[in-house]
Amino acid sequence: MSRLNLSFLSFPSSLSLPSIAKVFVSLTVLSVVLVSSRIVTDAVAQEKNVLVEIFTSTTCPPCAPQNTAFNNWLNNYANADRVTVIKYPVWWPGSGCVYYYQNQPPVDSRVSYYGVNGAPTGVVDGIPYGSSASTWTSRANSFMSQSTPVDMSVFSTLNGDETEISVDVTIKRLSSATNYPDGVVKLRVAIVERDLQYNAPNGSTYQDFVHRDMLPNANGTTITLSPDQVETYSFTADWNSSWNKENVRVVAFMQASSNNRIYQSVMEPLSAELFSQSYKTGWNMVSLSAQINHTNFQEIFPNGLSNTLYSFDGSYTSVPMLTPGEGYWLSMNADNNVGFGGSPISSLEVTVRPGWNLIGGLSAPSKVLDPNNIVNENLLYTYGTGYEESAVMEPGVGYWIVATQEGTVQVVLAD
After folding, report:
1. Does residue 33 carry a pLDDT above 90?
2. What's the rounded mean pLDDT across residues 311-318?
3. Which residues are registered as beta bridge partners of 266?
4. DSSP secondary structure letters along 21-57
């Protein structure tokens, strides 16, 4: 095994330190030695989400109890955040399903794709499993242990006058994965709407995950990825003003044409871009300055090199996930700009330890308040072409701050 010394990440001992640091006998040089030769070459497969596609109808009597059973299971399932759902409204057994007639072609295409001839029918990760919700949920649960050969993330926004939706799907093929499918691979993108109240002919009053559209269509987009390759696929479509934007979800899934199996899927609400931040090739100090569902760094930073996200708690630790309020080192393979969506963070309480700490800020420029008088809140350091002093923290950036003792500081919006 090779030993890779990352002492060049250290906070330089030659830096002119704030006076508060003089209480320390010496400045510990921050370094880490990793016993691995895979530091920037291999990726660890991320958790796989499971896609459940249900062919149903508001005119189908047996569909109502099966939909209810599935919804109840999902509402109480421990891994519900790893289940993506599309419910396609079909035109049988009786005509008149209002949701089918609102957009027929994508539904017709998916019915033909799987050869569906009954309702309800559940398809789990590309495999049809009949008409029983208990079977769908059992198979979904069993598929949770499978691995995925890709990282996938979705970022979607409405334009200013809310007439068009834009969707970006970023996919990275993981170099360490051995299960990337052969042959034609398709990226499919669907729009679904949740929480629809409708007194249906079959007696149901609540419809969830209702299919609305597919981008660019149900045929999908053929993708080709080499190991470690990252690609972003962009789509636009007309927005239907009858859809409730708070209830809309965008579903993206990667499906192999050879066996119909689905190798990864994601489902996200519409994103409002809170801010964007520029990063450079090589090492960057980064942070997560928004509340989002998926915090794996390779979903947030597609240009981040595998296994190069480091937190600091007296020594460096390689980590896969980011936590708001914490700062990190991350190496990028190219200059890039990252847009951050999710829910804004307007205040934080951050725990610090004696010595140097890596912290992060809010969704807008922020500053540190120190009611306990344990840091110099006006002296923070980030890394650009070299170490740079700052009194204000920018979103998406990590900062060094030095503390005299353990305690908490407050991060608030800058004036």
Report:
1. no
2. 92
3. 252
4. GGGSSSPPPP--EEE-S-TTT--PPPBPPEEEEEEE-
Which residues lie below 8 Å from residue 251, measured CB to CB, with a gap of 6+? Answer: 51, 84, 85, 86, 189, 190, 191, 192, 265, 266, 267
Query: How many angstroms separate the Cα of 300 from the Cα of each of 79, 230, 262, 272, 358?
Result: 21, 12, 22, 15, 19
Q: Please tell me whether the overall predicted TM-score, pTM, comes out greater than 0.90 for this model.
A: no
Vertex 236, ends 252 and 125: CA angle to 5°? 15
The answer, yes or no, to whether the previous bond of 371 is cis (omega within 30 of 0) is: no
Helix H or strand E segment including 285:
strand 282-287
Does the pLDDT of residue 111 top 90, yes or no?
yes
Output the DSSP codes for 130-154. Answer: TT-HHHHHHHHHHHTT-B-SEEEEE
Residue 386, CA distances (Å) to 8, 347, 383 in order: 12, 28, 5
The more confident residue out of 86 and 16 is 86
CB 150 within 8 A of CB 226: no
CB 246 within 8 A of CB 194: no
CA distance 53 to 87: 6
How distant is the alpha carbon of residue 260 from its chain centre? 24
| pLDDT 10s digits, 215-247 | 999 999 999 999 989 898 989 999 999 999 999
Give the C-alpha separation, 369 to 380, whole Å: 12
Please state the rounded mean pLDDT for residues 364-380: 91
What token pair was written down for 32? 């880490």
Residue 5: per-residue pLDDT: 37
Q: In 347-368, which positions are buried (b, 16+ CB within 10 angstroms) versus exposed (e)?
A: ebebebeebbbbbbbbbbebbb
Burial class of 32 by CB neighbour count within 10 A (0 to 12, 13 to 18, 19+): middle
Q: Which residues pair with 278 in a beta bridge?
A: 337
Please answer whether residues 397 and 13 qualify as being in contact, where contact means their C-beta atoms are separated by less than 8 angstroms.
no
* Phi, psi (rounded to 5 degrees) for 4: -105, 115
Cis omega before residue 201 (within 30°)?
A: no
How many Cβ atoms sit within 10 Å of the Cβ of residue 142? 11
Residues 6+ apart with CB under 8 A from 82: 47, 48, 49, 50, 144
Residue 196: per-residue pLDDT: 97
Task: Kindly list the distances between the CA atom of residue 141 and the CA atoms of 72, 74, 147, 149, in Å, as whole numbers in the listed order.
Answer: 14, 11, 13, 19
